[in-house]
Each structure stands twice: as C-alpha cells, then as structure tokens.
Design brief:
The chain is an alpha/beta fold and 493 residues long. It has three domains: 254 residues, HUPs (Rossmann fold), CATH 3.40.50.620; 89 residues, Four Helix Bundle (Hemerythrin (Met), subunit A) (Up-down Bundle), CATH 1.20.120; 52 residues. It is 46% helix and 14% strand. The chain has 17 helices and 15 strands. Strands 4-3-9-10 form a four-stranded parallel β-sheet, with helices on both faces. Strand 3, helix 2 and strand 4 form a beta-alpha-beta unit. The chain is globular and about 75 Å long. The chain starts with a helix and ends with a strand. Bound molecules: adenosine monophosphate and zinc ion. Zinc ion (ZN) binds next to loops.
C-alpha cells in the first residue's frame, strides 16, 4: 500500500459540506455503495457521467492499495413514475406499453447498461445486486422500523413516519432541509391520502390489482418503496456502517435522505461516513434527463448519428472530456468542448507514444519526482481530475522539450515519466491508447474528408451529377453527408 499518498487523500463529504481526510472504518479496506440505474430505458450520457465519476474513484482507491468492495445495484422494481409514492412502476409501465414481461424490460436494459459501460472501459463493481433479489431483506427492515415505532400500516401499505422520526433525529441533515420548510412547500397530491403527513414516504405499497410486480408480505401483496432497496442492499453487503455512499446529485433528496432515516430508524445508527454526489451533465444548458427527453444516447454520440454534434467521437475522447471537469461541477456537453478534448487527448497520446524514442542524458534538468507527486496531489484533493490532466499536459511539454533538446532527462526519469503517465491515463482515468495515426475512425474521417472536398469542387464547377454521385454512393456505403452552415460533416450508420 502506498501509505504516504493514501494518508493525504481528502474527499468532499456532502454530509458535512467540507473536504475531509479519508479514514476508512477498517484500515486498508473500503466499502462503497453507488445507486445504480433503473433499467426501464437506455442509459443516457448523464447516467454515464455519474457512473464514470465513481469508476474513477473506485480505480484510484484500488490504485492506492485499498481492498475495495464496490456495490452498485440495479433497480428493477419499486421505482414509481416521477420518483413518487403513487403511480405506476417505471418498469411495469414500459412492459405494459410494449406488451412484454417486466423482466424482459429489465433484461434488455440491463444488457444495454453493461454494453455501454464496457464501451467506455468501466471496471465492473464487486457486487451488482438487484432490488427484486432482496425483497426478504427489505421486509425485515420494515419490520424493524415498525418495531422501533417509526412506521405505521394503513390499508396494507407501510409508511415511514417522518414527523415522529424528526422529534429524535435530524431528517434533512444531508440535503440541508428543515422539516418545517418541507411542510410549507409540499402540496397534497391525489393518492397520498393514506399517509398521516405528505412528507412521510412509502416503505411498502399494497399492489393494485393491475400491478404485476408483487410479493407477499405481512401487510399485503405488494412491493417495496424505492428508497428501501438501497438501504437493504448496501447494509447487506457492506455492514450497517460503511465508508462511502455515492450517486448523482439529484438523488440527495429525497432518496439518500430517506436512506439515512431508514437506517437510523431500523438499526439505530447512521449508515455512512462519506456521502459523495456527482454533478449533472447538461445538454443545451439543461440537465440531461429521461423525463424531459433532453438527452443524447451514447450510441448517437459514438456514431455521429445525431442532430447536435458535427462528428462522431470515440469512447476515450468522451471519457477524457468528462474527466476534464471535476465530478462536482456541472458539465455542459457541447460539440466545441468535445472537439477541444479530442485534440487534447490525441496530443497526450501522441506524446506518450513517442516517450520510448526519447534520447536519455546523463542528468535531468526537470524534477520528475516532484511532477509525479503533483499528479497524486491532484487526485488526493477530492479526485481532482482536471488538475491531474493539467499536470499530464505539463508532461507533454517536458517530452517535447526533451525532443527538441532544450531540456534533458536520464533514462531512469524517462521510465518514471512513462510509468506514471501510464498509471494515471490508463489505470486511473480508464482511457485507452489510440493514437491519431492508428485510429481507424480517423483514417475514415480523412478519407471521407477527401471525398467531401472533391464534391465541393464538383459543385463549384456546376458538375452536380458528380456531386450527387459522391453523396449517393457514400450513402449506399452507410455514410451520410450532412450539409450545414459550417460546411459538410458526416455520420456512419
Ligand atoms: P436513474 O436510472 O434515472 O435512476 O439514474 C441513474 C443515475 O444517473 C443516478 O445516479 C442519477 O443521479 C444519475 N443521473 C441522471 N441524470 C443525470 C445527469 N443529467 N447527469 C449526471 N447524472 C445523472
Ligand atoms: Zn439508491
């Protein structure tokens, strides 16, 4: 274990609102739980960003030598429309619309989720549990919460008594909300009349006759509340008190706030030492979201088959783009941003790939050990990937200076530089080595670029037959040309 670097790791804890030194509960071990996707539709790039943030955190903790148990669940039941306590289950609704089994929906979108994460070179979590596989654990938790006096049963459903809980505990401590303000701001919605108070939330819902996904319980044939599954699965695999719980910023309230309340009510202790929240990916200045349809799917960005971007981007370029912002900042997905990242990424790769051909000297004029420490300092400062990348570009500068002869490095320092860049780019940031000259996509871009130019010349010469022929034959080969105000771009089907 690289102890000296580990001791300096700080992470931002949403619970305290501060960066704190990281101290695991058991020396050398880390338990981390991250809320996974609700598998009722294709993952969008916003989802990818959140999971990517935690993939890098997982990778870095492992690199530091921790034994990490990383649990990321699949939500395959209990998540109702509008994240509410009434309405249809998101998965059942999709199954009804498509007239197939809910579990076919779950299977289809779980496979899609895994395929996308593989494309972006994610490491698999240690355990990937499902909500439907943990109904018994959820029922046990509800029994505990009822026994401890923090839940009540009405017409076969069970609700968490937020008002009672707040008398002895602090409901709102994570999201920094006060119950009085919530009371003031909650509207009474139809279908919530079983609750004593609108702020209460469902632990178990009695299933309406048409609700297909249902299980027997002491209270009714029904299904668990959405917040409960994460309490059940996190504590089952990580213990009642574990190190890190993560998810997207939008889950802080009510989902994570309710998780804390459930744990404290059931087990008498707060579950998590460090709450970490990844910020949102935006498109056109607005949060990417399935509900509003303001989304771009990974496949559309990878193929270039979309109306927003000028070209296709490779998975590593998209990953690099996301890493150029801190996981705690909002990030706007733009064509200009991606173009800039693409340029930067290839510059970094090309420099890395020329390291081997550097001529060593008898002494170094650059302090590579200090530079290496600066890379660690960046990651130890709450996983600050943009600062890390700035340091990697500093290394690109060194490589070019050594090539030109204005600086020198010994062979040991060249190896150290090479090993450190390799570690950070591939092992920690999870990027893949594609140099611009090797990449098939770029060879294709170059070839189509030549044809686009020939077509422009044909048009300028009023040879429209030739220009149409180029366009149509490319289309037959599955390459669509798009004429825009900034010139012609292409996409591959
Ligand atoms: P869902 O499948 O909707 O439950 O979302 C899965 C994960 O993606 C959750 O952690 C969300 O917080 C996260 N998420 C959803 N939309 C975005 C977005 N626009 N940017 C970043 N993360 C998001
Ligand atoms: Zn969750």
């Amino acid at each position: 274990m690289q102890l000296f670097q580990q001791q300096k790791l700080y992470l931002y804890n949403s619970l305290s609102g501060k960066k704190e030194p990281f101290k695991p509960i058991n020396e050398g071990y880390v338990g981390m739980y991250v809320c996974g996707p609700t598998v009722y539709s294709n993952v969008h790039l916003g989802n990818v960003r959140t999971f990517m943030s935690f993939d890098v955190i997982f990778r870095y903790l492992k690199h530091l030598g921790y034994k990490v148990r990383y649990v990321r669940n699949i939500t395959d039941a209990g998540h109702l429309e509008n994240d509410a306590d009434a309405g249809e289950d998101k998965i059942t609704k999709k199954a009804r619309l498509e007239q197939i089994e809910p579990m076919e929906i779950v299977q289809r979108y779980t496979v899609d989720f895994h395929n996308i994460l593989n494309t972006f070179n994610f490491l698999p979590p240690s355990i990937e549990p499902t909500a439907t596989g943990h109904i018994i654990e959820q029922i046990e938790l509800i029994k505990n919460i009822i026994d401890n006096g923090f839940a009540y049963v009405v017409n076969g459903s069970v609700y968490f008594d937020v008002h009672k809980f707040n008398k002895t505990h602090d409901y709102g401590k994570l999201s920094k909300r006060k119950l009085e303000d919530l009371i003031h701001n909650t509207r009474e919605l139809d279908g919530q009349s079983d609750k004593k108070n609108p702020q209460d939330f469902a632990l178990w819902k009695k299933a309406e006759p048409q609700h297909i996904m249902r299980w027997p319980s002491p209270w009714s044939d029904g299904f668990p509340g959405w917040h409960l599954e994460c309490t059940a699965m996190s504590t089952k695999y990580l213990g009642d008190h574990f190190d890190i719980h993560g998810g997207g910023m939008d889950l802080k309230f009510p989902h994570h706030e309710c998780e804390i309340a459930q744990n404290e009510a059931a087990k008498g202790q707060t579950p998590v030492n460090y709450w970490m929240h990844a910020n949102m990916l935006e498109l056109n200045g607005q949060r990417m979201s399935k509900t509003t349809g303001n989304i771009i799917n990974p496949g559309e960005l990878l193929s270039g088959n979309n109306k927003i971007m000028s070209k296709a981007y490779s998975p590593s370029v998209i990953r690099f783009f996301m890493m150029q912002s801190s996981y705690r900042s909002v990030l706007d997905l733009t064509d200009s941003g991606l173009l800039g990242s693409e340029k930067g990424f290839y510059r970094l790769m090309d420099a890395f790939n020329t390291l081997e051909s550097l001529k060593p000297s008898t002494r170094s004029s650059i302090n590579i050990a200090d530079w290496k420490q600066a890379c660690y300092n960046a990651m130890n400062d709450d996983f600050n990937t943009p600062i890390l990348i700035a340091n990697l570009f500093e290394a690109v500068k060194y490589i070019n200076q050594v090539k030109e002869g204005s600086e020198t490095l010994t062979s040991e320092d060249i190896v150290l530089l090479q090993e450190t860049i390799h570690t950070f780019i591939f092992d920690i940031l999870g990027l893949e080595n594609v140099s611009k000259t090797e990449s098939g996509t770029d060879k294709l871009s170059a070839a189509v670029g030549v044809l686009i130019k020939l077509r422009q010349e044909a048009r300028a010469n009023k040879d429209f037959a030739m220009s149409d022929k180029i366009r149509d034959e490319l289309a037959e080969a599955g390459i669509q040309l798009k004429d825009g105000k900034d010139g012609t771009s292409f996409s591959v089907n």
